[in-house]
Amino acid sequence: MGRVALKPSAAVGRLLRHRRKELRLTLVEVADRLERVGERIPVSTLARIERGALDPGLPRLHMLLRLYRIRPHLVADLVDLEDLAVEPPVGKDLKALFNDGLKYWEQGNHAQGLAHLFAVRELVPGDPEARLLRQKAMLTFAIFARTLGKSELAHQLVDDLLREPPDPSILLNVLVLAASVWRGLGSLVAALAFQARAELEVDPGDPRQVAWVFHEKGKLLTLAHEFDAADEALERALQAYRAANDPYGESKALLARVGALVAAGRFPAAIEVARDVLARSQSLGHAELELTARIEIGRNLVASGNAEEGLDALAEALAKAMLLKDRHGQFLAHYCLFKAYEAMGEGDRAALELQSAKYFVRYVDEAAPEADEVRNAIDTGAPHGATRKVPPPSNRFGAGQPGSRGPARRGPGRRGRFRGPTME
């Protein structure tokens, strides 16, 4: 059988090894099963693939994915994330890896954040405390994937957690994240179902839980065009974040409000709230939220007819996304620059930005109108002026997610409700 060379991937090797162990198969049993369905892969070769020391080639990789029932696109997602990560840290225990990974992520250092989470997922839990920490790491990794536009990868991770099943202390987080993931995949019905189940789990005396659940509810109600109900839910989330002394979560809820205002056509109000978030995120060092605020300011200035003024904000957003190596952010910035130049009648510059957006859309798998428009342009070969017109989409950080970080966050090794990152 012919082979197509692939770059050896430690992340893909870890995925294959983890799935094999979940199925309780030895390498010998895997080799035997592969032989029955087509081609035997030697045990030594399987071991090298799992270590990330050997590329399997496309035919063998597909055989392993079919045997393990792994969605093929997850491999590409993992390689994308692995490319962002730096060398994994050494000499740190589980708790240090986990806490430092969250800290790096909030600072906008995706490379270190992903490297730390990869390292945590590699460790095998030897006791209930370690098992809980590993589940929290899986949850956080899913949150990171969702934030970077990898909704399918986040979906797989959430499914894995639900099957384990999740520890009761993180069940609420998993349910809210599941709602967010299904929203990203384009199924409002499924998202609302998980959201309704999450509301049954919330402790009304815990402001963090209230914030997470009503943050996501506000985003879902926005998508359902129930704007008054969405505003009520987001206001409840904002009050809860303030009660929990969580400025990071509060900023994300404000971005959700931006999305609701945009959906209602209230662009000046949306710009005002986005500028407030920009100032807050800059003062608190929340680089990822700063990027999103800049994109929202720029895109909504364009949508309200102030294309020239919006260009500066979008150019700054693109520079920030490049600094953060945020491919999803780079896609959004290029897309919005394309729309700005198109509105100004500058066809050549619009075409250049659309071409860049066409490149970066490969890193976005969520259901979003801007991604759909660019994919449609790719499929039809349409010039920049012939893309499908869509209203300004809501922001990628709009919905509340399971967990946010703040001064009162519990350490991940302690029992209690999970205090992970707030995310898309």
Structural description of this entry:
Helices cover 68% and strands 0% of the residues. α6 (94-106) packs antiparallel against α7 (110-122), α8 runs antiparallel to α9 and α15 (267-284) runs antiparallel to α16. The model is unreliable at 1-5 and 388-418 (pLDDT under 50). It is an all-alpha fold. The chain is built from 20 helices and no strands.
Annotate the secondary structure layout.
Layout: H1 10-22, H2 27-37, H3 43-50, H4 58-68, H5 73-84, H6 94-106, H7 110-122, H8 128-147, H9 151-163, H10 171-185, H11 188-201, H12 207-223, H13 227-243, H14 247-263, H15 267-284, H16 287-303, H17 307-324, H18 327-343, H19 347-360, H20 369-380
Helix pairs in contact: 1-5, 6-7, 6-8, 7-8, 8-9, 8-10, 9-10, 10-11, 10-12, 11-12, 12-13, 12-14, 13-14, 14-15, 14-16, 15-16, 16-17, 16-18, 17-18, 18-19
Structural class: mainly alpha
User: What's the gyration radius in Å?
Assistant: 22 Å
Order of H and E elements: HHHHHHHHHHHHHHHHHHHH
Any low-confidence stretches, pLDDT <50, length ≥5?
1-5, 388-418
* Tally of DSSP β-strands: 0
Q: Determine the strand fraction and express it as a percent band.
A: under 5%
Question: What is the mean predicted local confidence, pLDDT?
Answer: 82
Give the N-to-C terminal Cα separation.
42 Å
Q: Report the major sheet.
A: none
